[in-house]
Prior knowledge:
The chain is α+β, with helices and mostly antiparallel strands.
Amino acid sequence: xxxxxxxxxxxxxxxxxxxxxxxxTFAAQDKPAKAEAQAPVQQFPPTxxxxxxxxxxTPEEWKDxxxxxxxxxxxxxxxxxxxxxNAFKDPVFxxxxxxxxxxxxxxRNHCGGCHTPIxxxxxxxxxxxxxxxxxxxxxxxxxxxxxxxxxxxxxxxSNLHKTAVLEHGNSSYILNPGxxxxxxxxxxxxxxxxxxxxxxxxxxxxCGNCHNIFHPGNNxxxxxxxxxxxxxxYAQNDIQCQxxxxxxxxxxxxxxxxLKRPEELDDPSLEGFVALGGPWRNVVHQHGFVGGNxxxxxxxxxxxxxxxxxxxxxxxxxxxxxRLRSVASLKLEVTPKDGPLTQLKVRVTNERAGHHLPTSLxxxxxxxLEVVVTDDQGKELLRxxxxxDHNELPQDTVIFNAHAVDANGQHTSFPxxxxxxxxxxxxxxxGWKYGKYYFNVxxxxxxxxxxxxxxxxSFPQHLADILLGKDAVKVPSVxxxxxxxxxxxAALQAASAEQHAPDQP
Length: 505
């Protein structure tokens, strides 16, 4: 039986349609090419830095910060001597960077993307194995100035949608150096360069480009300062990083206590000129970006006022110490247990940091409790957290940080080796944690005195010895807050009696 030609064609079409749904054949063929075309291109892998139009940059395209300082004097003086200005020169960072380079050459861009954006984006950073103890890096002068004025004020946006974790971090910024300088002022004008408004510069997202770091190989979150803020009460109340780190510590404390932004405080101390010849502003943002790093001066030598690169370093250090001393509080809770056994709980509250305490490289940062209990005869009943003769902490110290391990499960202080944290004991914003201790009260004691102190330092002594050489520097620490109480033993005994009294029928 013959089949009409038109029906033959129809049947063939139905068979093809059954085997390959409409568009499926071509879609399947097109998908790989399309996906490849849409895959994010990393100009400076493994960082997520990009340039507008993916154009190549040269060091000559960037302005020397000293030029900016001729009109923006206060901003320049704040930046100079700051961690941003010394991001490339910091000897601790240089040593870590050198060791990372030797372990994995891709770490050159990964680390340098936030410490010398100009050097990485121009491809002008070089490693010299003969520099320092472990080797060191060199870059053109403008690149060695770290995170400079021109770096921040020519960032046009973020590449968070291109990152492996779809979040800000790992140098996820877009650069466009040129005559146009961007800031959060809507009416800025300058006779020397073009100006542009950028909402991005007033948001924590801007800071998150570098203050969120995840491992480029395994995507493990190593530094989560931005994320810590993002899920805090500060973010819920629209308090941005700039609201605390670009104002004096006294204003930052008010912001933390009231959850009001600086412009809402109506404080005359914030007023001034942003630029020479510019209009009077209600809020002038400082550019020291001070956090908790108070060790830079000790590590780089005392500041020399005759050297422009040292200008402001001592002020930056003083401000960092003030911030550390304003951020936390302590509360003592003493409870009698069985017989002479007594429990001491020290409550540590993160009162004013918009991120965890500590933050950033929490595997090396140290916030710890030092506790001493004595009786009225001066007899020591308890001691914990006192630095030893080698400037190290005893093993029983209550310390707030994170414990990192490598792929073999061994402890590591090197960020490029971290695969996970086995313990995280940092204190979230407005949160608190306890240090717990036990001691015995002598039978003849009348009073006991409890002294508790909270200390901070950026890294332990043994790490400094590894990075800088043994005994090259004694790592300083800062006493953040202290509390002292004298407790009558009679009061403890009364509390114990009440605690153990039988229940009344």
